[in-house]
Amino acid sequence: MSDYPPTGLSKNVKELPEWIQKGCGNDEYFCEEKGATFLGGNMPDELPDLSEHNNFLTDVLKKQPELYKSLKDKKTKLGVTLGHCIKTGIDNKGHPMIKTVGLVAGDEESYELFAELFEPVISARHGGYAKDAVHPTDLDVSKLTDTKIDPTGKYVLTSRCRTGRSVRGFKLPPVTDFEERRKVEALVVKGLLSMEGDLKGDYFPLHGSKSYAPKPNGMSLEKEEELRSAGNLFQEPDSTLLLSSGCGRHWPDARGIFHNDDANLFVWINEEDQMRIVSMEKGDDIKSIITRFAKGTEQIQKVLQAEGADFMHSEHLGWILTCPSNLGTGLRAGCMVKVPHFSARPDFKAVCGKMGLQTRGSAGVDSASTGGTWDISNADRLGKSEVQLVNIFIEGVAQIIRWEQALEAGENIDEQVAKASLPAKY
């Protein structure tokens, strides 16, 4: 079918700008207009000029340019080259406000075969993570703190927890081929559809996807719009970072979303990661959110294991995901919280940073806040367990709300804020 991947482009992709279309077919992204001309499958002998680049990958390559030559002819057992991993960082020179990683994994072995490059990037991105460090994994919800984030119910609008998972034995989205992506979808959906009770739900492929027999043309446009407008569904890749990484190939085939009947557990399939799992609800009951999330991931893993598969995981790096920024737990526990007084302080973001928290505007990374509403979440992913990170998030946001209440009452909080730090026990 010339009007559908892998030999052609799907109808909805043909309506997108040409520079996006070029990343949604079968081939590596090549677009002179966007400066995306490095090819992982056909690497140049010499490392391209990186003098104007600013990302974690090129920082390492500028210091150790010899790594390019020593690694460029190596290939993982599944066929991933160094070029597949570094293409997005070579094509994209960097962002003035946000330092990107510039490096993706094409499969689980990429992290080992190209470790000389991945390890310094991982260490720089995660604030100094040693080559021999062991990452703790702990999803025991009984260890969560009893601290209530927002006892009044006045400040927290919604809370959510998200992470990713990958299936062992398959290439990751940047390099996976057409049939392999369909196999991942079938395997994961089988696990999701086996869930019962409050996790029971259905799978909705993206509109136009022809990979899933029960819904041969994917979900309706209305359903897609409903999910997107609620912030629960990804869209086609519209950045050269994603297109160069390879995550747009064969769009929209074998991609979609599962959600339970209560619409508080969502699983994205075959976007940047094979699975992105999101548990959410209104209010601040993070315990029930994490419990649902832990139950869901456990059930998916059981079905995978029954099929002879499992999640990618290592003692050193934790859960293996496409981008090194998400290694370890891959976990982001966050809430939309309205704190106009505290967030108006010039030291707001710096204080949150000292407490192990990350702030985003109400529309995501690098966006502005609306009416003092911020998305606040744990900053770290690697080196601390899931339970530790969620507890850091709970204690930190609870403290921010107490400060907001103090400011509302006209009190001075400068002395307290000066002592802000990570909770000692975490």
UniProtKB/TrEMBL annotation:
Gene3D superfamilies noted in UniProt: ATP:guanido phosphotransferase, N-terminal domain, Glutamine synthetase/guanido kinase, catalytic domain
Top-level division of the source organism's lineage: Eukaryota
Domain Phosphagen kinase C-terminal: 155-407
GO MF annotation terms: ATP binding; creatine kinase activity
E.C. designation(s): 2.7.3.2
Binding sites annotated in the UniProt record for ATP: 158-162, 276, 332-336, 360-365
Keyword Electron transport tagged: no
Transmembrane regions listed in the UniProt entry: none
Enzyme class: transferase
Keyword list, A-Z: ATP-binding, Kinase, Nucleotide-binding, Transferase
SUPFAM superfamilies: Glutamine synthetase/guanido kinase, Guanido kinase N-terminal domain
GO annotation, biological process: phosphocreatine biosynthetic process
InterPro entries for the chain: ATP-guanido_PTrfase, ATP-guanido_PTrfase_AS, ATP-guanido_PTrfase_cat, ATP-guanido_PTrfase_N, ATP-guanido_PTrfase_N_sf, Gln_synth/guanido_kin_cat_dom
One Gene Ontology term, aspect cellular component: extracellular space
Positions of the Phosphagen kinase N-terminal domain: 39-127
PANTHER family to which the protein is assigned, alphabetical: ARGININE OR CREATINE KINASE (PTHR11547), PHOSPHAGEN KINASE C-TERMINAL DOMAIN-CONTAINING PROTEIN (PTHR11547:SF57)
Membership in a protein family: Belongs to the ATP:guanido phosphotransferase family.
Name this protein carries in UniProt: creatine kinase
Organism: Oikopleura dioica (Tunicate)
Taxonomic classification: Eukaryota, Metazoa, Chordata, Tunicata, Appendicularia
